[in-house]
Amino acid sequence: MSLFSAVELAPRDPILGLNEAFNADTRPNKVNLGVGVYYDEAGKVPLLKAVAAAEEALVAEHAARTYLPMEGIAAYDAAVQRLLFGQDSPLLDSGRLVTAQSLGGTGALKLGADFLHRQLGKSLVAISDPSWENHRALFEAAGYEVVTYPYYDPATHGLNLDGMLAGIEALPEGSVVLLHACCHNPTGVDLSLADWARVIDVIQRRQHVPFLDIAYQGFGENLQDDAVAVRLFAESGLPLLIASSFSKSFSLYGERVGALTILTGERDETAPVLSQLKRVIRTNYSNPPIHGAKVVARVLNDAHLYALWEDELAGMRVRIKAMRQAMVEQLQAAGVSRDMGFIQRQRGMFSYSGLSADQVARLASEYGIYAVSSGRICVAALNQGNIAAVTTAIAAVLR
Ligand code: PLP
């Protein structure tokens, strides 16, 4: 009997399993719609021009790699705040903002979860039904009970607003409520301005703690409009946590660039909050890595690079929207009689296609087209070269 013989094999990650099946498939026209990254028209993960330019300038500096402060690069943290609240926001000088660079959006969520648990004793979090699969696992690992509030309505392929409001209302007072600020993963279904106002109202009344996850800013409408939830929450006067990720918007997945921002209720709270957040950071990984955050800080703090990045981000967004439109048109042309227009109304990288697990399984076995069994497809994995094969196959399994 050796020490590790009692360790059981962890359940397989369903998306990794999907990738393995895709890789093992020898059909030349196979398509992987199960991924969670943006592919360009050539089917490649892009390296943005703004990123390359910032990297070249950084390499030329040959700077020493000393430790960063626990909360990361100051110019990065300030740029994150401008992106979230707008560069003219009075909050920027309010003394109520704390931002710490983090290991991607996942790292920001973990910092926020640990901070709320350790400092405020929070142990109940509500996430949307459905949500990004790591939300539940991450909060459970941080010591929380994870419950869900209704979100997606399969009948309309849209939002179940009444269910969502009632679900949030029914939570014990002071619960942590995790919300996707834009481009909901996995459904692509977002709230309107009026919907947000009602959600904020319930959260305020029930004294819940809002925690916004913004991993796709710029993929919905534009950088400003996609931050509308952040700004409405901030205007409401509620304290707020925000997990930002730049993995997608800068195509910097492996660099792990994100940030946790906390909007405190009063100026005096800010220094203690930062000091305790630093302890969370110190006891987890001490301090964050340099490269990705330096690249992002350089782009966000340079007018020319910022404009270039905004343009490239718009290019990704427009391409995804074009794929949504082509999908709807081609499905209709292929004889699908049900209204698939919801695909065009959904936003961001994903679409809940409405396909059943059986239909998804047929797509893989009969056509070499791989998607998550929930029916989630990554619209950003479509391109002019593969979309006809995908829509033909979907039309066939829907028949
Ligand atoms: N939150 C949501 C909703 C996501 O979809 C993702 C990534 O897929 C993340 C957070 C995590 O982002 P990161 O890769 O930066 O950790």
TrEMBL record:
One of its GO terms (cellular component) is cytosol. One of its GO terms (molecular function) is pyridoxal phosphate binding. Its cofactor is pyridoxal 5'-phosphate. It is an enzyme of class 2 (transferase). Gene3D superfamilies: Aspartate Aminotransferase, domain 1, Type I PLP-dependent aspartate aminotransferase-like (Major domain). Its EC number is 2.6.1.-. Keywords: Aminotransferase, Pyridoxal phosphate, Transferase. It holds the Pfam family Aminotran_1_2. Residues 29-394 form the Aminotransferase class I/classII large domain. It comes from the Bacteria. InterPro entries: Aminotransferase_I/II_large, Asp_trans, NHTrfase_class1_PyrdxlP-BS, PyrdxlP-dep_Trfase, PyrdxlP-dep_Trfase_major, PyrdxlP-dep_Trfase_small. One of its GO terms (biological process) is L-phenylalanine biosynthetic process from chorismate via phenylpyruvate. Belongs to the class-I pyridoxal-phosphate-dependent aminotransferase family. Homodimer. NCBIfam families: PRK09257.1. This is Aminotransferase.
